[in-house]
Amino acid sequence: MDPSKIFGPRKTVEQVEEGTDLAPKFDAQGLIPAVTTDFDSGELLMHGYMNAEALALTITTGEAHYFSRSRQAIWHKGATSGLTQKIRELKIDDDQDCVWLRVDVAGGASCHVGYRSCFYRTVPSGAGVSGDSPLTLEFTEHEKVFDPEVVYPGVENPTKL
Amino acid sequence: MDPSKIFGPRKTVEQVEEGTDLAPKFDAQGLIPAVTTDFDSGELLMHGYMNAEALALTITTGEAHYFSRSRQAIWHKGATSGLTQKIRELKIDDDQDCVWLRVDVAGGASCHVGYRSCFYRTVPSGAGVSGDSPLTLEFTEHEKVFDPEVVYPGVENPTKL
After folding, report:
1. Which of A157, A161, B90, B93 pairs as cysteine with A123 (C-beta 3.0–4.6 A)?
2. Nearest to B135 among A22, A122, A134 (CB)
């Protein structure tokens, strides 16, 4: 498919912010950030990126597609793990440089480490943080939904230092 | 303050993903994306960026600070509008290249256009989208919380085409 058929041109700030034309902005790498939350719980599941093709595939198929920066390829989420994300609602922000996916997750997990959400640790903040010493994260998920070694056998971990 | 005092080094993938050291990754521009949701409703309010100083200020003050890419400056959210964001919970993702802020918003709005959330329009998706013609957004917020002309008099609109 040709993504340019469903995306309009960005003409004015007013059109982009106050209008009804879908006119997404992709950055210098051709990407737009995508924020994915669980439709029922509201929990933030993951933060990824899409290129024009991935966004168009997400829109037309109703399932989340991202662009993997580590693999430099379109990534149909769940194609390997079975943990697909079905779009319940798709939203775009004021200047149309970010999209929000509200999804149902098949299998209940979205994180390659095996947790339900990628955001399974909290950072201390506010009163009580001195700012003078390294901070310690606290786990908020204590059990993995799946074992990555079983679900992704032989697949390289995408995390980069 | 010196942000390096509260951030640890990134040593191994296991340390970053499975450990308790706060070791955030900043991109080539020195930035980390920040996803901000309303603590009570779970609604996605905005997507922004932080540099190391903005993240450290967010952690130590308990109020959201971002890095404005358009102004290339630290941005204490609400300093102009009064619509500050108080951190109720701060989380970081598996590879520590994204943070999630769960906040209470003073004044009830987070979008410079005047809406409660920056994500006030939906994109059609799934069955019924042909993929052959430009798509039309649908507004989900119909009334602005504030008038940007009143709250930001003489301030340039940050949206770029």
Report:
1. B90
2. A22
Contact between B125 and A60 using a beta-carbon 8 Å cutoff: yes
* Closest by CA position to B36, among listed A41, A151, A35: A35
The interface predicted TM-score (ipTM) is 0.91
Does B29 touch chain A if contact means CB atoms closer than 8 Å?
A: no
Check residue A155 and give its pLDDT. 84
Global confidence as pTM: 0.93
Contacts of A111 in chain B (CB under 8 A): 94
Mean pLDDT estimate for chain A: 93
Confidence bin at B107 (pLDDT 50/70/90): confident
Residue B10 to residue A115: CA distance in whole angstroms: 21
Average pLDDT over residues A109-131: 91
Q: CB contact, 8 Å: B16 with chain A?
A: yes
What percent of chain B has pLDDT above 90? 74
